Amino acid sequence: MTTSSRSEEALENLQKNPYYEKYAERIATLQKTSPEEFLRKVEEQQKNKNIESKKKFASVDTRQFSSVLNPKGELKNDVTAEEKKLSDIFKVDLVKDKDATEVQIIWEEYHKNKEVLSATIPKDVYSQIQQNMKQYPTFLFPLPRSEGYEYIMCQSYGHAVHFTPLLAYQVHHENAPECLTMVHYTELSDKGIVLMRGDYDKAASPLTTRQFSSVLNPKGELKNDVTAEEKKLSDIFKVDLVKDKDATEVQIIWEEYHKNKEVLSATIPKDVYSQIQQNMKQYPTFLFPLPRSEGYEYIMCQSYGHAVHFTPLLAYQVHHENAPECLTMVHYTELSDKGIVLMRGDYDKNVLTGKEAQCLANQFQMYYNGKDENKYKLLQSFTKTPDSFKHVDLITELENIQLI
């Protein structure tokens, strides 16, 4: 491919970027004066983008997000947990002549310095357990975390029990990675015992406060009867002081007022907000991906009146209408006669950082202002044709918001 055709292709890709118009003049100048430098920058940016994408979906080596975006890897061999034999991990011949108590001591000693679980279960107890495993093969357990609980799903097959983070299962279904696999070995049941061994994923341990969104903590009682939809600008701001100010002056005062507060704030042109409001009514529910240290967490937004409520998707699946918001944005229209609408966003510091809250607010504006064709199609698809909606397209859109 010639430099000219490569340059044309690169420019065509750049024009799809929502920020292209803002930088079009600088890009055109660089393309004209130094086409090789232009191509180098574009290719370098694309390379960095690919590297970042790989990082976000690489194997998780931290313990922060239960590897929910990493599907189950290829098995090292064709032997599944259900087919495992005691002889695969233990020299059965050495305990043939031992009684149950001696086997238990040997089994415990054998695993003492290994990072695995082990147990010796009386045969009659395991018979009851096995019966219930067959009758109730799927169940949920709450796992205490630092700021709430994480749900872990267990599934029983044969003599094996597989534990999977619920969020991972919701993403990957049968390909979800297990965090713990327990296998019961019945080869020594003639001695009246069943041996159990559990192998767990050392990478799937406690999440920090901001990494799991306290999903088992329902919404607390409201301090008063005023909801976000009913809030007035006068509740948080002295409107009388800006009655005689123009839009620019109000914007400066609004920004200054919130400068040292841990909240989001914005001044939106009235015509822009009119389009946003129209889309809020037409598409009241949507999803946004929030970048985390080792993947993405999905945050659901719901619009009511002039307010937008953001809730971690998992929290909503647990609590529904009682799910706690991590961010609430309220649009105040009292000064719309000046051609502006004021926005304030309050976020839960236990769930979001300021940058994460801003990321959600920015995505909301980009999708709901209707200016980006791809984003608007996704907004429509989520509500009108949910069967064709692909959540991974949201991540693609987010990753494409990059500047040269």
TrEMBL record:
Protein's GO biological process: mitochondrial proton-transporting ATP synthase complex assembly
Organism of this sequence: Pararge aegeria aegeria
Keywords: Mitochondrion, Transit peptide
Protein name: Jg8421 protein
Highest taxon listed in the record's lineage: Eukaryota
Coiled-coil residue spans: none
Primary gene name: jg8421
Cell compartment(s), UniProt: Mitochondrion
GO terms for cellular component: mitochondrion
Pfam families: ATP11
Matching InterPro entries: ATP11 (IPR010591)
Keyword Mitochondrion: yes
Family, per entry: Belongs to the ATP11 family.
